[in-house]
Design a protein that fits this description.
Layout (H helix, E strand, L loop, with lengths): L1 H21 L60 H8 L42 E2 L14 E5 L5 E5 L6 E3 L1 E3 L2 E8 L1 H4 L27 H6 L4
Antiparallel strand pairs: 1-6, 2-3, 3-4, 5-6
Length: 228
């Protein structure tokens, strides 16, 4: 009996390990350069307000989302981190590395990028889901019945998430590094995992890459907008 249990355990570890290896930026649409991690991160000489950040952040003039149905307005302008880091590339403006791979950080055009097509959000965010606002389920003027922010972890630091009402998925909320006491923000990374960890049917064909969950039947939307 023990031998069978051991075999099952080993098989589980192998399968789990294989899934873990697969669940990475490698082979995803963010696998963009000879050293794909270096597209955003550097082990040395990082800059900005996020650890080991490796891309230049050019000051932009943003137009952020506003609506009479936006219960938790206003959104921050400019957007806070980590959304501001996503927008370094997805604002359609050319972005360069701070610290290039290779000897003496010689510039390499393979790491420079201007996002085009549907991934280019531009600087007008009025037609995109709001980001960079403090999440508060009590601010619900039109009956969405938002789930409360839930403490998933309290040590070594607090980590809060919206726990999807239907799927149980953790949609992470983020503290602003420049103002940690300002609340927990709904950001790009609340719905998207830039390292492409989730797997779901239709990923990359009829569904967007980098979602945190399968959105078939608008499940991700209903996880938060539970009355819709």
């Amino acid at each position: 009996m023990k031998k069978y249990l051991l075999a099952i355990l080993v098989a589980s570890l192998v399968i789990g390990g294989a899934a873990f290896v697969w669940a990475s930026i490698i082979g995803s649409p963010h696998d963009l350069a000879p050293e794909p991690c270096a597209m955003c991160h550097t082990p040395h000489s990082g800059t900005g307000d996020y650890p080991l950040w490796n891309r230049t952040q050019v000051a932009q003039t943003w137009t952020v989302y506003e609506s009479i149905s936006f219960d938790m307005a206003p959104a921050d302008n400019p957007p806070r981190t980590p959304s501001s880091l996503c927008l370094v590339c997805h604002d359609g403006v050319a972005s360069q590395l701070v610290n290039y791979p290779g000897p003496c950080s010689n510039p390499d055009a393979a790491y420079d990028i201007t996002v085009a097509g549907c991934a280019n959000l531009g600087t007008d965010l009025t037609n995109d889901h709001p980001i960079s606002f403090n999440y508060n389920d009590m601010l619900d003027n039109d009956g969405n019945y938002f789930p409360p922010a839930t403490a998933i972890r309290t040590t070594p630091t607090n980590r809060y998430a919206i726990v999807g009402a239907y799927s149980g998925t953790n949609y992470w909320l983020y503290q602003d590094p420049a103002s940690p006491s300002s609340g927990y923000g709904f950001e790009c990374a609340t719905c998207h995992s830039v390292h492409d960890l989730a797997t779901y049917q239709g990923k990359g064909s009829d569904q967007v890459y980098f979602l945190r969950n399968d959105n078939s039947g608008s499940l991700m939307c209903l996880d938060c907008h539970t009355a819709r």
